[in-house]
Amino acid sequence: MIMIAYYIITAFVVVLLGWNFIRETKRRGDLVLYLLVMIPLVLRLLRWK
Amino acid sequence: MKRDALFKTALAGAFLALCLWGGLPLIRHRRTDVPVVKGPGVTAVLRLSEFSPGLKGTAADTNIYVLEGKEPGGKALLMGDTHSNEPEGMLSALIYIENAVVEKGTLYVIPVFNNSGSRNTRPGDGYPLYFDVATDWGRRRFRFGNRDASPLDQWPDPDVYIHYPERQLLSFIDVRNTNRTWPGRARGPLMERVTFGAMELMRRERIDVAIDIHGAETMFPVTNCIVAPDRSVKIATLASLTVKATEGFENHVEPSPSGFHGLSHREIGDYGPSLPFLLEAPIPFLDQPTGPKTVKLLLDGKDPFLLSLSKKKKLFVPYDAGGWPLEKRVGQHMSVTLEIFRQYTKKNAGRPIIVGGVPRYADVVKNGVGHYLADPSKAVPGGVVMN
What we know:
The complex is a heterodimer of chains A (49) and B (387). Chain A is mostly helical and 49 residues long. Helices cover 84% and strands 0% of the residues of chain A. Chain A contains two helices and no strands. With 387 residues, chain B is an alpha/beta fold. Chain B has two domains: 1-31; 36-386, Aminopeptidase (3-Layer(aba) Sandwich). Chain B has ten helices and 15 strands. In chain B, the strands form four sheets. In chain B, strands 2, 3, 4, 5, 10, 11, 12, 13 and 14 form a nine-stranded mixed beta sheet that branches. In chain B, β4 (71-79), α2 and β5 form a beta-alpha-beta unit. In chain B, α2 (87-99) packs across α9 and α5 crosses α9 (326-347). The mean pLDDT of chain B is 97. Classes of the chains: A mainly alpha (49), B alpha/beta (387). Chain A binds chain B through residues 2-3, 6, 21-22, 25, 28, 31-32, 35-36, 39, 44, 49, and chain B through 4, 7-8, 11-12, 15, 19, 30, 59, 152-153, 155-156.
C-alpha cells in the first residue's frame, strides 16, 4: 500500500517536472535542473534495474 | 518556438546519453556473477529461498554451500558479505568453500549473505565496482558492493525503521542492512526475509555455532575483535586468548549489547539455537579520513592520513606504514573461526566440529589470499557455481 502511494507520488512529481520543462522558455539553467531531478524518478517509474 | 523545442530535445538527448554512459557500468556490475569453485569438501549447494520462500526469484536469494563431514558432529554456519564493502568476510568464506575438508560435523557457508548489497555501490564515496586478487595462476575478480541492499530491490525506505519484533526505532537506512534486520520475518521487507532464511536454516538444521564475518574502521572502537553475547562469551574469550598466545595477533572480545537490536550477535542467540559470534578485522578503506577509495587502499590498507592520525593516537588499533593488508584481515578471520570450532569441540565433545585443509593466519600472511583461491577455468565439469 505504501509502495503504491510512493509510485503515485513519483508519477505526480514527474508530470509536474515534465510540464514545467515544456513550459519553461527563458531560464535554461532550470531546464537542466528539471531533467536532473527527473532522472531517479523516471528510472523508478520504469522500474529499470 | 521551434528553436526552443529543438534546444529542449537536444538537452534531453544529452541527458539520456549521460545516463547511459554512467548507468551501463552499474548495470553490468549488477548483472556480473562471480564463479565459485566447489572444493573437495562441498557436498551440496542450497539456496536461502529453500528456508525463506519469500526470497525466491529476488536479487536477495543466495547460495548456501554445505560441507558435510566424514563423521557426524556439530554444525556451524559461516556468513560473509553481510556488508558487501567488507570483503574479508566473503574471501574467508570462499577459502573454506574451495579448500576445507570437514572431518567431523557439517559446515554451512554463505559467502554472499547480502546478495543485493553485493550488486550495489556507493557512488558518492567513489567506490570501485570490482577488485582483483592476485593468485598463483592469474587474477581473480570480485564484485565490490555496499553496506546496504540496493534500493532497486527494496524500496521505499521508511522514515524510521521499526525493528521486528522488538519495535526498537532504528535509522531508516537500517531497513536495508542485514546486520540490523535479525531475526527477520517471512513476509517482512526483503532484508528481513534474508535474515529469516538464515534463522530458519539454524533452527531446522540445529546449527551449533554461527559466525558472521565483518570488517570495521580503525577509528571505530568495535574493531579487531570478536563480538559475543553472554552465552558465547566463554568460547570467544578462549579463542581470543589462544590466537594471541599462539599466533601473536590481538583480537579482543566485545560484549554484545543486550539493548541494541537487529544485530546478528544479539538476535541469533535470542531467537535460535546457535551460539553467535561476529568477527571484526580492521579495514582502513572504510574509515572516513582517508585518501581516494581505491582498490589499492582496499587491498593494502595503507593510507597516509590514517598513519598521521595513528601518531596522534586517534585509532583503536595499532597502525604503521605497513597498513592493514587484506592478508592480515583474512588470516585473522581464518584463525579465529578455526579456534572457535576447536574451543566449541573441547566443550561439546559429543558434537565436534573438526575442519582441515584451510590455512591459518601465518599461512595467509605468508602466501597471500590468492594462493588459496582456485582457478575456475581448471575446475572439473559442474565444479563451478555462479554466485
